[in-house]
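Q: I'm writing a short explainer about LysR family transcriptional regulator for a general audience and would like to include a description of its predicted shape. Could you first generate the structure from this sequence?
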Amino acid sequence: MHITHCLRILKALKLQNNVHLCTIKPKEQRRETMNLDWSDIHYFVLMVEKQTLKATAEALQVEHSTVSRRIERLEKQLNVHLFDRINKRYLLTADGQRLYTEAKKLQFNVRQFVQAAQDSLQEMTNVLVSMPPMIAHALVSPHLAAFQQRFPAIRLVLSSNTAISSMHQRQADIALRLVVPQQNDLVVRRLRDMQYGWFAHADYVKNTPESQWQYIDFGVTGPHTPWLNKQLADKSIGFVCNDFAVMQSAVMQKLGIGWLPFEYGNSSEFIQVHTSEIFIGQLHLVMHEDVRHAQKVRDVADFLIEILRE
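A: Of course. Here's the predicted structure. Afterward I'll give you a sentence or two in plain language.
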């Protein structure tokens, strides 16, 4: 029966029987605006990749409670259970896995947006490159003038330190690393082998009996650590440093036998000792997937590959 015809019948009934009619309106649906904090999504992505509160907090340089609070807030806002807490590990639920995939896409798009804005606002584009001091001093710095002549519109911002810069927090566009990163969204290219050996000043070897040799330890943990600990197990350690330039200076001052990359040890005043004991590491160029196609970042990466590859 047509609704108009029904209404006519009801009105007639009202007139005849004094029936009071009320108009029933559909209940208005509430539309709640979901005000998500983008940084909560960033916390979520890192938690997936790190799997523990401790590792995530260390990567973000915040307290454990901050990470936990952000994750709980995101779950509440989304009304979705993202993680199963098993012991100290946070493992994705099925819903969490689906949202992680979307969060990675969102993260990529935001970074592309920021990169596009920065590129359009700057006459000269900054490209941030992080590398260990030894690589900067011995291998990259001799080529800085050539780089500037070839790419006058790129301002190279070189961060030379022993800490590993976070590619996800945009602490670097490109990194030269002696340790292979494990994140799946990083593009890694092996550049060359790095050889390390024991070197001493010629006068030190000449004037000091081998039984009295002092050794200089390298105080940075890395792939070399087990090998180096074994080498120094029965040696007398007289000095420890975390910078190869400092170690080279100590060897030059005849403080002892130093463990140096060949780029620092190949001096006319140095002698290589224990010549069969050589550690071989690898140097890698690392970029985040979302910046690898930015032209000026690509230009810097290609230049570094050109000067550093074997």
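A: For your explainer, you could say: The chain is about 45% helix and 25% strand.
Q: Perfect, that's easy to follow.
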